[in-house]
Amino acid sequence: MAIDLHKELRMIKEYAQEHNVPIMQEEGIKFLTTFILKHQIKNILEVGTAIGYSAIMMALVNEDIHVTTIERDEERYLEAVKNIKKFGLQNRITLLFKDAKEIKLDEQFDLIFLDAAKAQNIAFFQNFEKNLKKEGYIITDNMNFHGYVNVKLEEIQSKNLRNLVRKIKEYHTFLEENDHFITEFYPVGDGISVSEKK
Ligand code: SAH
Ligand code: MG
């Protein structure tokens, strides 16, 4: 049965809007899918499925691509299961209903895409770097966090926000100082970093 891709994608985006699900914006998705195409990425691990939007967009780049994606929120996970079925992508997208800080994986990936809890990126990075092939990439979204990373911590009033921004800055430094990876930062969408394993 043929489905109307554009209509289904629009419906996922509408659901995200209505339920406050922070799916990737147009510009970020464009960057990600172009990167996957250009580097002939086949096996992808995504941390932070939400309702499956970015996983579907990545899988649609071409038919050889397989995405494994992790989500810990049950409602979103179930919505993702539905959406992926609608696109007939259940053979190419593996959904794991798990906490990405705890799950251990054995597979090797060409690309790991971190788009879950912004404060936990160091933990995700360290949990999954052993699952990255040599010369593979780790891409992280939300590196600029609405421009807050350029604001001095003392100037941020809310304690929670200040702690979150501190964690994002720490991840920034962690990437810059990591000898096993070369990282480039791109001012795309909410800020994207690309770390290539040496
Ligand atoms: N990549 C998605 C958006 C992800 S939003 C897209 O663009 O379509 C971030 C998601 O990460 C949220 O749904 C949140 O529940 C999930 N998340 C946060 N911390 C997590 C963790 N430790 N393990 C698994 N999922 C997590
Ligand atoms: Mg994001």
Task: Please provide a written account of the structure.
The chain is of the alpha/beta class and 198 residues long. It is built from 6 helices and 7 strands, in the order H-H-E-H-E-H-E-E-H-E-H-E-E. It has helices at residues 5-18, 26-38, 53-59, 74-86, 121-128, 159-177, and strands at residues 43-47, 66-71, 93-97, 109-114, 132-140, 181-186, 192-197. Helix 3 (53-59) links the parallel strand 1 and strand 2. Residues 22-24, 48, 50, 53-54, 70-73, 76, 99-101, 115-117, 120 line the site of S-adenosyl-L-homocysteine.
> Outline, from the CA principal axes?
globular
- Largest sheet report: 7 strands, mixed
**Which class of the domain at 5-142 in CATH terms?**
Alpha Beta
Gyration radius over CA: 16 Å
Which small-molecule ligands are present, each listed once? Answer: S-adenosyl-L-homocysteine, magnesium ion
Class derived from helix and strand content: alpha/beta
**Rounded average pLDDT:** 95
What spatial order of strands do you see in the largest sheet? 3-2-1-4-5-7-6
Q: How many alpha or pi helices?
A: 6
What's the β-strand tally?
7
- Would you identify the regions where 5 or more consecutive residues have pLDDT less than 50? none
* N-to-C SSE string, H for helix and E for strand: HHEHEHEEHEHEE
CATH superfamily membership of the domain at 5-142: Vaccinia Virus protein VP39
Q: Report helical residue fraction.
A: 25-40%
CATH topology of the domain at 5-142: Rossmann fold
How far the N terminus sits from the C terminus, by CA atoms, comes to 44 Å
